[in-house]
Amino acid sequence: DAGLQWLSSTFCLCSPLKSLQDAAIFKNWLSETWVNLAMVNYPYKADFLQPLPAWPIQEVCKFLKDPSLSDKLLLQNVFQAVHLYYNYSGEASCLDMSETATKNLGQLGWYYQACTEMVMPTCTDGVNDMFEPQKWDFEAFSEECYRLWGVRPRPSWLLSVYGGKNIDSHSNIVFSNGGLDPWSAGGVTQNISSSLVAIVIPDGAHHLDLRSRNPLDPKSVQQARALEISYMKQWIDKARH
């Protein structure tokens, strides 16, 4: 109980931790925070998931350089890191574990889509990643979807409708992925045909090429946008003739 109280106070949580189940939710919240930070590691200030400084991963990692610290000091540093993500603007009086993105993003639509059309198995092993081992549990995912939306996920729907990895017969698609984006692990990163092309942006976080131009855009994203436009022009010209 004393530990839960200390964590609640140290992390300025809006709802204090009261049980081991709360502690598990707390750990999942931290894990999701690291994933989100990697997604939005943009080269300039942005507020896609939360208001953040340029290259937020570099800023967050400043607090996490010394793994030899005592447990409590390590956790206090972890707080400083997540505090930068959740309260860079300085407006939050406490940290709410139920919100990992700004309210105006409307994340509920994404959760519904994941529960119906886009079932994406995710797991961790603690060896090839920085997280505690956690197997993919479709039943638990299904129960959560039913609790939230009253729907059951259809794991084969996406594969049946769009072909999964067997998409040789498709055409005129650019698959762009940022090398800094965790989602790129599930993306198409090799050309499949002359009109199913992959563009990898080494310095790109989540959909950086689809954001507005910015003077701080790295060269790799500028080149990617030019290449995307070039492909689209080719396909339009081909369709005209």
UniProtKB/TrEMBL annotation:
InterPro entries: AB_hydrolase_fold, Peptidase_S28, Ser_carbopepase_S28_SKS. The keyword Signal applies. Its main location: other. GO terms for molecular function: dipeptidyl-peptidase activity; serine-type carboxypeptidase activity. It comes from the Eukaryota. It is an enzyme of class 3 (hydrolase). Pfam families: Peptidase_S28 (PF05577). One of its GO terms (cellular component) is lysosome. It is found in: Lysosome. Its EC number is 3.4.16.2. GO terms for biological process: angiogenesis involved in wound healing; negative regulation of systemic arterial blood pressure; proteolysis; regulation of blood vessel endothelial cell migration. Keywords: Carboxypeptidase, Disulfide bond, Glycoprotein, Hydrolase, Lysosome, Protease, Signal, Zymogen. It catalyses: Cleavage of a -Pro-|-Xaa bond to release a C-terminal amino acid. Cleaves C-terminal amino acids linked to proline in peptides such as angiotensin II, III and des-Arg9-bradykinin. This cleavage occurs at acidic pH, but enzymatic activity is retained with some substrates at neutral pH. Homodimer. PANTHER family: LYSOSOMAL PRO-X CARBOXYPEPTIDASE, PROTEASE S28 PRO-X CARBOXYPEPTIDASE-RELATED. This is Lysosomal Pro-X carboxypeptidase. The gene is Prcp.
